[in-house]
Automatic annotation (TrEMBL):
One of its GO terms (biological process) is carbohydrate metabolic process. Pfam families: Glyco_hydro_32C, Glyco_hydro_32N, Laminin_G_3. InterPro entries: ConA-like_dom_sf, GH32_Enzymes, Glyco_hydro_32, Glyco_hydro_32_C, Glyco_hydro_32_N, Glyco_hydro_beta-prop_sf, LamG-like. GO terms for molecular function: beta-fructofuranosidase activity. Belongs to the glycosyl hydrolase 32 family. The keyword Phosphoprotein does not apply. This is beta-fructofuranosidase. Gene3D superfamilies: 2.60.120.200, Exo-inulinase, domain 1 (2.60.120.560), Glycosyl hydrolase domain, family 43 (2.115.10.20). Residues 1-29 form the signal peptide. SMART domains: Glyco_32, LamGL. It comes from the Bacteria.
Length: 988
């Protein structure tokens, strides 16, 4: 399979069989399951068989073809997080005082924490059958914690692990309830992760009248009609017993398919009557560990046993420190539980090696302890000690800690969760094939186009659990050449703390050692902050969040929202801008910071702001600030939000000197002339030094059709930009794209008669690259029609008007389904004495056109599958196709050559309109001497100011070649009219 996804190799380790024989006998003695699903049906089958009773459970799936993938035993049911689960009205029997739930589960993403209204929801369930006051559910939470909910005699219990599941591996999960022993346990991969003591009860309360769900929770929460308490990942070998599996039996069941769990060495569990060998300072920790929650404190949970370290003694005001005795580091991992306040450097758990602090961990402003793991392999053999510190007296000024162990990494079974879009989205003729995009589900803004160690990396906003903007992650595409793309593992996901609601937009930069780092927006239920993440490997596949996060905890006062950092470096100093808007209609703004170490940031004067709401909106998203040369000239681009107008991307060019940006023009220009069809560009420099960007080309069809498709959004092809002599930006397609070309068709010297049709019958298709060289006279008007049906009633068109110097994008007749239908124009000055160069990229529902390697327009088109014609129509003037070429394009996963098609003779600037001159006035010299004509020369707008109270006049504007461009006149009406004078200014 492509990408960095681990390929699962199903194997049984023979050397384990002998040592496991006794344990397996014990496991078999525990009794047969009363419910068993193997999920070994053929992929696409919409039923699963319950092996004990033979009952068939129905499988729900958006595409009516639920997938099966290789698993630890045979096949597993592939779940998508929003539309796939199994269910039946099945009543469990023979369950009284004991129950065991067992399953193998692998995932690439955990379920969302809230619904669309930010209300907390149940975790997605492996198995669930609940009703008011009865039932059970084995759940996976939004941060990977495993939860067992159940009722006994109508009383609800919730057992939650502090530790989180690993992604991309098969996790063996066992949950047991034993009312006779008064205990509930959760085991993961052979290890006991959580235990709870129970009150005395006579029996478990089942919900036999409720449906039994596999892969989703009984309690639904929906977005766009889909249930989001559904699991994402894969489920295998699900069993329910009416007995309890003990520790040896759990290990035996696990090690039948996986290595033995690694034993941990307990360093401290804080279960004694005092702190033992730990020394105490201050009053925050008292003289002994706390028995759970202290007076005045919210309920503390997630600790092991009966006691823990809790510095809330007397509230948040006391301070203090616990210091362990010294020890020699002998194992590569230190694991412990931590909770309480998020105050790096002041309230934390520390590891000191040879007297220097080398690792720290804080709480996340919650009283639930979570497991933290430190990799300390680099310090093996060195002397260390641990400190638990509380030096904070304000809110959340306390620390919680428990259960410190030394261990080694356990080997886990890799899971191949790769989603093949050719299978998942088979038959979808509108899905692009050579534009970069993820394999399925939701994608949005692109981030941090990075070239590193011979490979390009494009990150993007991703929801792996559904088709909508919710519980955001960072996805990852990689490519050797900006043309052949593959999706990698998700690099960032929400976690408890400042980014618990989502990992939102950001960018990449390189640290002082030249290694890429990520800056992102972390969002909780109240505000946004800025986080930093670091790569764990040279392939940029695995990432970890910086322990000091958030490096900027919130935006400045008086600004609307605060998100989308962009970072660049000048000398040894890093600078960051963050998208924002000034409150109360103040317009777009970019709060600006600087740093020498990427962690500590100081605010400086805003890079730029604008109060012109009509021109540049009230809020700026996805800013970028990128050097165009070594003379200090930069492009500043933002995606503004408007009231009542679609989003677009606008830009300024200017100088960056002495931490000040001075634009060359104040009225912003459009990056893509289609106005609202390419958004949020990610920018970077390729291996050859070309400044390249990739933006999102958003969906414009109705939401219902997007949801049916199972994917939303795609990205543009890579585009190269250049700074032109007129301080604007020119665009051309990246030269590597020609590697995808095949099956060339060539035609030449074809004059197109006015009103004729079917002029390019040799051309056609919906996965094409087209190039035209066109000669047209000054009065010419012609249209390039794409994705056209035989009747000529459906097409996407680009219109060219040489007389008015306009280009128009026309999708009024483009679609076979409900979608945006638009006719938008862009100024573009033609010179009829020169050839017009057009290059077009058609990729099913995406169309992009480059004009003279200067102007670019992009759009979405949703025609019928049979609409694949290409035509060029002339409505005025003379038009000749000097040369035209068509190539079919291979998909982005194909194997191709390494061609580079660098364009030649690139224009140095956009053409200006011809200079206008005033040829005469029918008034005296006084009038002639008081007129004003500006700007002169001009590109596309000319203003003529005349003396006040001039009365009637006629003004005609001619080009230097004598061609009439515009005529305007004012005739005074009769004396009874209120009008007594004509306007004193005309704009052409």
């Amino acid at each position: 399979m492509p990408g960095s996804y681990s390929i699962f190799l199903k194997m049984i380790r023979p050397f384990l069989l002998l040592s496991l024989f006794t344990s397996l006998q014990t496991a078999f003695a525990a009794g047969d399951p009363i419910l068993h699903f193997t999920f070994n049906e053929a992929s696409g089958t919409s039923l699963i068989r319950e092996e004990v009773s033979g009952t068939q459970f129905s499988v729900v799936n958006l595409f009516n073809a639920p997938e099966r993938i290789p698993a630890v035993q045979g096949s597993a049911l592939r779940l998508d997080g929003y539309s796939t689960w199994a269910h039946s009205d099945y009543a469990l029997s023979q369950v009284d005082k004991q129950i065991t739930l067992e399953a193998w589960y692998a995932t690439d993403a955990f379920p969302p924490a809230t619904d669309a209204n930010r209300n907390a929801i149940e975790g997605a369930a492996i198995i669930s059958q609940m009703q008011s006051g009865a039932g059970f559910a084995l759940e996976v939470g939004p941060y990977g914690n495993v939860s067992l909910d159940f009722y006994a005699d109508g009383k609800k219990y919730v057992v939650v692990t502090a530790r989180s599941l690993e992604k991309w591996v098969w996790n063996h999960i066992v949950a047991t309830v034993d009312l006779e022993a008064r205990q509930a346990n959760i085991y993961v991969n052979g290890n006991l992760w959580q235990s709870m003591n129970l009150a005395a009860h006579s029996s478990l309360s089942l919900a036999s009248a409720a449906p039994l769900y596999i892969g989703r929770h009984t309690s639904p929460a929906t977005i766009e009609g889909f249930n989001i308490t559904s699991l994402n990942g894969a489920l295998d070998d699900l069993k329910v017993f009416n007995t309890v599996l003990g520790p040896a039996e759990v290990i035996a069941s696990y090690t039948n398919f996986a290595p033995e769990p690694v034993a941990a060495t307990l360093f401290e569990d804080f279960e004694g009557t005092n702190y033992g060998a730990w020394t105490t300072e201050g009053t925050a920790f008292g003289s002994q560990p706390a028995a759970g929650t202290l007076a005045g404190q919210q309920v503390v949970s997630g600790y092991r046993g009966n006691q823990l370290v809790n510095s809330f003694l007397g509230g948040d005001a006391p301070v203090g420190k616990l210091s362990s005795s010294t020890f020699t580091i002998q194992k590569p991992l230190i694991r412990f539980l931590v909770g309480g306040g998020n105050h790096p450097g002041r309230a934390e758990v520390r590891l000191l090696v040879n007297g220097n602090t080398v690792r720290t961990a804080t709480g996340r402003d919650t009283e639930m302890l979570r497991e933290e793991t430190w990799d300390v392999s680099e310090f093996i053999g060195q002397t260390a000690r641990l400190e638990i510190v509380d030096q904070v007296t304000g809110g959340w000024g306390h620390i919680l800690a428990d259960h410190i162990t030394f261990t080694e990494e356990q080997a886990l079974l890799p899971a191949n969760l790769y989603i093949d879009p050719a299978v998942r989205h088979a038959g979808d003729y509108l899905r692009p094939q050579y534009h970069p995009m993820p394999n399925t589900a939701w994608a949005n803004e692109a981030y941090g186009l990075t070239y590193y160690e011979g490979k390009y990396h494009l990150f993007f906003q991703k929801n792996p659990n559904g088709l909508w903007l919710h519980f955001m992650h960072w996805g990852h595409l990689s490519s050797p050449d900006l043309v052949h793309w593959q999706e990698e593992k998700t690099v960032l996901a929400p976690s408890e703390g400042f980014d618990n609601f989502g990992i939102w937009s950001g960018t990449t930069t390189k640290d002082p050692n030249g290694k890429p780092v990520i800056f992102y927006t972390g969002v909780d239920l109240a505000k946004a902050g800025i986080g930093l993440a670091l790569p764990k490997d040279e392939n940029l596949i695995e990432w970890e969040k910086h322990p000091a996060n958030p490096v900027i905890p919130a935006g400045p006062a008086g600004y609307l929202d605060f998100r989308d950092p962009f970072v660049w470096k000048v000398g040894s100093t890093y600078y960051m801008i963050v998208g924002a808007g000034i409150a109360n209609g103040g317009g777009g703004a970019l709060p600006t910071y600087k740093s020498s170490d990427l962690v500590n940031w100081t605010r400086i004067t805003d890079l730029y702001r604008s109060s012109n709401l009509e021109q540049s909106g009230f809020f700026w998203e996805m800013p970028l600030f990128y050097p165009l040369n070594d003379q200090g000239e930069y492009i500043l681009a933002v995606t503004p939000l408007y009231n009542g107008k679609p989003a677009n991307v606008i830009y300024w060019i200017g100088k960056w000197e002495n931490e000040t940006f001075t634009p060359y023009f104040t009225t912003p220009k459009l990056l893509d002339a289609s106005n609202n069809n390419t958004l949020a560009p990610a920018i970077g420099t390729d291996a050859e030094g070309r400044i390249t960007y990739i933006g999102i080309v958003p969906e414009t069809r109705n939401v219902g059709d997007q949801l049916k498709a199972g994917w939303r959004q795609t990205f543009s092809i890579p585009r190269v930009i250049r700074l032109l002599q007129d301080s604007t930006i020119g665009h051309y397609p990246h030269p590597n794209l020609c590697r995808l070309r095949q099956n060339e068709v060539l035609l030449a010297n074809r004059s197109i008669a006015k009103g004729s049709k079917n002029n390019l019958s040799e051309f056609g298709g919906n996965q094409l690259n087209l190039k035209f060289s066109v000669k047209a006279d000054s009065a010419a008007k012609f249209s390039l029609q794409l994705l056209k049906n035989d009747a000529g009633t459906q097409y996407t068109a680009f219109h060219f008007d040489l007389e008015k110097n306009l280009v128009a994008l026309d999708t009024r007749y483009a679609h076979a389904q409900e979608a945006l239908r638009e006719y938008t124009t862009a100024d573009y000055v033609f010179e009829h004495k020169e050839e017009i160069q057009l290059e077009v990229f058609i990729d099913h529902s995406v169309v992009e056109i480059f004009i003279d390697n200067l102007l670019v327009l992009s759009t979405r088109s949703y025609p019928a599958q049979s609409s694949q014609g290409v035509d060029l129509l002339v409505t005025a003037g003379a038009v000749e196709i000097l040369e035209a070429r068509q190539w079919t394009m291979q998909n982005m996963r194909s194997s191709t050559g390494a061609e580079v098609c660098e364009p030649q003779d690139l224009p140095t600037q956009f053409r200006d309109l011809p200079k206008e001159v005033v040829t005469g006035f029918k008034r005296n010299d006084e009038v002639r001497n008081t007129i004003k004509l500006y700007p002169n020369p001009t590109k596309n707008r000319l203003t003529l100011e005349l003396p006040a109270h001039l009365g009637a006049y006629e003004a005609a504007f001619y080009s230097s070649g004598g061609v009439l461009v515009k005529k305007k006149s004012c005739r005074l009406p009769d004396r009874r009219s209120a009008l007594r004078e004509c306007p004193a200014a005309l704009t052409c």
